[in-house]
Amino acid sequence: MKPVIAIASGIKKNKEAGIFEGELYSYITEEYVKAVEMCNGLPFIIPLQKEKEDVERLLTMADGVILPGGNDIDPAFYHEKPIPECGEIFHEVDQLYLWVIELAEKLNKPLLAICKGHQMLNVAYGGNLYQDLHVQKEFVMDHSQNIPRHLSSHEVRIKKDSFLYDIFQKKANVNSFHHQAIHKLADAFEAVATSEDGIIEAIFKKEGSWMLGIQWHPEMMAAADEKMKAIFQLFIDQCQKR
After folding, report:
1. Is the Cβ–Cβ distance between 127 and 200 less than 8 Å?
2. 144 band by pLDDT with thresholds 50, 70 and 90
3. pTM flag (> 0.85)
4. Which of 219, 225, 239, 241 lies closest to 42 in space, CA to CA?
5. Where are the alpha helices (DSSP H) in the chain?
């Protein structure tokens, strides 16, 4: 049987003028769905929920869970006030992500966290973030590329003896679409990939349930890059074991 993979939904606001302006949509990009399907997983979407008990009921039906990219994270979750450069926030989505992380730990569900999900994984275990790299960190490269999203824009160094090293060896060429990033790394995790300017690009949980965070967007590259697809296959294989 195919492992069932829950994908947490984000929120998107319609900004086009007209009668639907301001309407909110639960959404994920189709690339997450396709990446799961390419690796023989069966995806379903968790929409925004108001009760943690309802999220738990949905997660009990899944063999693993993906936390996708999305809007900026509310700095209140890591005990800071927003700076002017902090972008659009949906507090309720951040709360959903935190519930999913907590319940994945409780239910021993493998978790793959991407971009915002990667950052929230760190926050959930006591770490914090740069709210904006360009105003809060010196000597930082551009992490918001203007080339097609399936193409790489910079290199990351991979930690030896990590899951990612088995896929990429010493280095990987990745895409990049973020202005926030991990600042203080939570004690529960080890950094397994970093960019040349010192940004933590991937984290793995040291003990307990299987949790991997990726700052770049492998789902955008997986259709044309077997190594990016292999990240999802690694995750799906962990789900299959359970």
Report:
1. no
2. confident
3. yes
4. 239
5. 30-38, 52-59, 91-107, 116-124, 133-136, 163-168, 218-221, 226-241
Query: What DSSP string runs through 136-200?
Result: HSSS----B--S-TTS--EEEEEPTTSHHHHHHTTEEEE--B-S-EESSPPTTEEEEEEETTS-E
- Measured between alpha carbons, how far is 50 from 54 in angstroms, rounded to an integer? 8
CB neighbour class for 162 (10 Å; exposed up to 12, middle 13-18, buried from 19): middle
DSSP bridge partners of 129: 182
Distance CA 125, CA 97 (A): 12
Q: Which fold has domain 4-241?
A: Rossmann fold (3.40.50)
Residues noted as catalytic: 115, 217, 219
What does the radius of gyration of the chain's CA atoms come to, in whole angstroms? 17
Distance of alpha carbon 129 from alpha carbon 55, whole angstroms:
26
Collapsed DSSP state (helix, strand, coil) of residue 105: helix
Q: How far is CA 116 from CA 69, 94, 217, in A?
A: 4, 9, 10
Do the beta carbons of residue 64 and residue 236 sit within 8 Å?
Answer: yes
Could you tell me the pLDDT band of residue 241, with boundaries at 50, 70 and 90? confident
Side-chain-facing half-sphere of 18: CA atoms under 13 Å: 5
Q: How far is the C-alpha of 217 from the C-alpha of 240, rounded, in Å?
A: 23
